[in-house]
Amino acid sequence: MKPAQPLLRVTALSKHFPIHSRGFFSRQVGTVRAVDDVSFDVAPGETLGLVGESGCGKTTAARTILRALRPTSGRVEFALADRCVDLAALPERALKALRPRMQMIFQDPFSSLNPRMTVGAIVGEPLVIHRMARGRELEDRVVDVLRRVGLKGEHRSRYPHAFSGGQRQRIGIARALIMNPALVVCDEAVSALDVSVQAQVINLLEDLQDELKLTYIFVAHDLGVVRHISRRVAVMYAGRIVELAPTEAVFKGALHPYTRALVSAVPYPDPDVRMNFRLAGEVADPAHLPQGCAFHPRCPDRHAPCDKVRPDLRPLADGRRVACHLHHKP
């Protein structure tokens, strides 16, 4: 059976920000490599977890994929019904026509909703902007999507301050889904919520994925959250993917030392099991990356090539991909 074409294929994607000196005669004195040569694909209906510490570039990568930021280089191929388009190369006018197919759920359910707009206006605004519905049809679609996310139709006349954090995030989900997208980027979508509410929102996202045939990129810093929703995990460090593997394979036997540290940080329900893998040092500065592997100053397993040669993300025999000299055959 021929495998399905990826809905999204990212190839050698980079996003660099110039650093300029101060003063009247400002000049570029450096570069922040926020995203550097990132490649992966996402199948239709799949959830890919994109994880890493704060500052690793995962949110910048997600926003660059959706063209909220213009990429420095690389390709972002998005599959339509009859063709693939490179989002990275599209002009703004052509990109606007594709916006309904790609949406984002933001991290903070408090600041991402306009407090001066009613819930109905917030949720229906994308349809108004893209001239996709108005009048009775607009109202019906708003009511329908609110019910899908577990709210009531009469909530559309209220303002965001009348809702709890979990309910506000449901409003944000409704706003993202009202245009029937194919791809949804969840940018730390549950990190601002209480643990019990996190579980409810994750369950809702899974139900909506099954019902609406959605594809997710789930951005998070907590591997424990990602484990419950993602089929595969891409681990980022200093702007690059260092490991890409099925979620359970990561938890049963992570290969990259950085991934092992992230897994070790996940709370484990058995008090007799101690996860003692800890990292020393600070996260690499993307404006002043060390030579060789960016992780080597913190890596307990570093050896000769690590401080001189930067490892590429290479496939292994079992289908995983890892950027580590420990697992690359000479």
What is the compact description of this entry?
The chain is an alpha/beta fold and 330 residues long.
Please characterize this protein's 3D structure:
This protein has 330 residues and is α/β, with parallel strands linked by helices. It has a single domain, classed as P-loop containing nucleotide triphosphate hydrolases (Rossmann fold). Helices cover 28% and strands 23% of the residues. The protein is built from 9 helices and 12 strands. An 8-stranded mixed sheet has the order 6-7-8-3-9-10-12-11. The model has no long low-confidence stretch (mean pLDDT 90).
Biggest sheet details: 8 strands, mixed
- Give the number of domains: 1
Shape: globular
| Parts with pLDDT < 50 across at least 5 consecutive residues | none
What is the N-to-C order of secondary-structure elements (H for helix, E for strand)?
Answer: EEEHEEHEHHHEHEHEEHHEE
Key phrases:
330 residues, alpha/beta, Rossmann fold, eight-stranded mixed β-sheet, four-stranded antiparallel β-sheet
Secondary structure elements and pairings:
Elements: E1 8-20, E2 28-42, E3 47-51, H1 58-65, E4 73-79, E5 84-86, H2 92-98, E6 102-105, H3 119-129, H4 135-148, H5 165-177, E7 183-187, H6 195-212, E8 215-220, H7 223-227, E9 232-237, E10 240-246, H8 247-253, H9 257-264, E11 314-315, E12 321-322
Parallel strand pairs: 3-8, 3-9, 6-7, 7-8
Antiparallel strand pairs: 1-2, 1-4, 4-5, 9-10, 10-12, 11-12
Helix pairs in contact: 3-4, 3-5, 4-5
